[in-house]
Design a protein that fits this description.
mainly beta, 14 strands
Length: 239
Amino acid sequence: MRFFGGLDDPRRRVLIQALAAGFFTSAGSATAQLFGRSPGRLPAGQSIYRLSGSVSVNSAPATLQTRISPGDTVETAPGAEVIFAVAEEAYLLRGGSRMVIERPPSGLVTSLRLITGKVLSVFGKGRPTRMITATSTIGIRGTGVYAETDPEQTYFCTCYGVTDIVANNDPASKETVSATHHDKPLYILAKGNAGARIRRAPFINHTDQELMLIESLVGRVPPFVFPMEDYNAPRRDYP
């Protein structure tokens, strides 16, 4: 099985270093010069906090003034990135990604379809959500999650909260994860034996600082406390 987990765009390393250096303290003014403004709840009518590289919404080039709503498709070119919020949910969509924020079915607040690429997302408590990837359907209950997907497999980390994970082509492969701090990352495979398409995975390609950033855009903080210096780079420790 191929593992996800190459080095990311250098801009992401700069972002993480800035966060660890005091993005969420009185040092925020210095990082505001780097990223345009200090993090915090976005003003009414603003969707995008930051973008770099080529980003489009519904095939039109995106700017900081672009609104993003349910029904929209957000795409990033390789090496690009966009950080944005829709209602009480916030996202960090990495380069080479395509995600549809679907108009949700009855009973759901949000429904996402990550067609390809990588996304870090946070969702409010009591706001049931569904994420569909190339190989999985995931019910999300008040949590932060990270996903990478391609036609062969999905990497999925329940950063905190509860998720119900099912392989798209094998309903017998399913798992409920209740996590407090990245407790059980998983791979969900497109192929494999019945009941065995979900496997343990390492922790890769996302950090607590990034979760803290996108939670701040919707006026929340992650449900854990950590020393800033502990997460200057993603761990890649295989179980």
